[in-house]
Amino acid sequence: MESWEVVVIGGNPAALRAAIASADEGSNTLLIDSGGIGSKQGKPSIAGIAASVGEINSSAHRDDTILAGGENTDIISAARACGEAVSIISELERWGLVFRRDEEGLPYRSNSPGHSKARLTGCGEASVREITRVLEEQIIKRKITRRYDCQITRLVSDNKQIRGLIYLDIISGEVKSIQAKSIILATEGYEGLWKSPMEGSGTGLALAIKSGIKLKGMNNFPIHPLMIKDTNLHIPIEILDAGGQLRKPNGDDAQPNDVLEENCVLDLRKMNQNDKIWFDNTISNIKNRTNLDINVDVIPVSSSVVTTGGIPIDPEGRVTLDKGKMWFTGLFAAGQSSNNGMHGNGLLPGNMLLNDLFSGQIAGSNASSWAIKEKFSNSSLINSEEIKYLDEIKNIHNPGGKSVGQASTILTSLANDLLIDSSQYSTINKSLSRLQKQGIRLTDKSKVVNTELLTAIQLNHLMMILEEILLDN
Fold first, then answer.
1. Per the structure, how many domains does the chain have?
2. Which of 44, 362, 390, 406 has its Cα between 20 and 30 A from that of 297?
3. Rounded to an integer, what distance in angstroms lies between the CA atom of residue 206 and that of residue 433?
4. Mind listing the pLDDT tens digit for each residue in 56-77?
């Protein structure tokens, strides 16, 4: 059995930053994810990084964060992340990220709803892609081992202490195990509940649920107001500072929250010519997917959910139990897998990517520092759990169950019903229980590169997360 001091689960900026920090602290680190090479670079950017560049201090950014999140915002977490934002920008610059610049040579700051000052930095529409690329280069430079196409299926623990993990090798179809001193959960969010598992299957949260960890903030559903209607195309919020304007059906100016109630459109007809280069692919995608010309037409938009609920962590990135009184020893979380209270009940544009990088660095550094001092435990428990999962994976296929497509459609419908009328949670819960009992029918019985099986596993994870949301409600 292979053994690693620190295993980071995920492939997004939070996971990449955690792996870099872990390696820099001296631990032998493995980065493992279900996606293929470069798959995370294609994730759409809904906003850049919020940072108080050019401001005296970060207090205004902190106050805006608290105002957006409401009374449930963890003030200390918000202050810490906002206070590190400029340093994070500087680090990315040192590593080669090409920021959009202003006339003074500083990173350009866009105005955005919720911010009292222009504060969104980045690379226009390509912020997530370019940040991911730069971080992946740092992974390569440090010779961090990376494993792709591996769906993590469960954590192995003993008396609330991490011992390792079990995963499905998607390419070979084999179930394998890894021994680890520390594990960092830094996977995608669970936006797939409202679209498809490809949009975010919430792997980290599902692993936590299986381990008996109570999640936090699961009834918060912040929105991104700029998704092209009837597509999965997201438009970065910065486009509103480049001449874009949200409008109501009668032509009046609209605010982001109006998209929830009315059929709003995005008007880009007066978009600044100098800004178009930073949104070139977005403009092209609008034309290709809708056949609309931004110089003539307005674009119908709808809202999409951005998930902020997750695994409770302390200031060191450690996963906590019993309302913060205990640590699940050896287990850490970062990014959208975690919830440190920074976002509260809302989400200030640019704070998602900021928290990904901030929490990733914290979790990676502390996981590594802890793991170096520890010894590996007996591996017999991991071997027995691997055998158990071999039996479990055989039972995923239910001949009388729903097809993968049917299960996904039903699950999406239930999640959307919850958004429309949360008072119907009892009815939704009954429908979810019925779907879980029916199970999923697989048509592909092969072991090798069985993407249908992968989707079925991810759908089961999303069902567990929806069940957790309903229980929390």
1. 3
2. 44
3. 17
4. 999 999 999 999 999 999 999 9
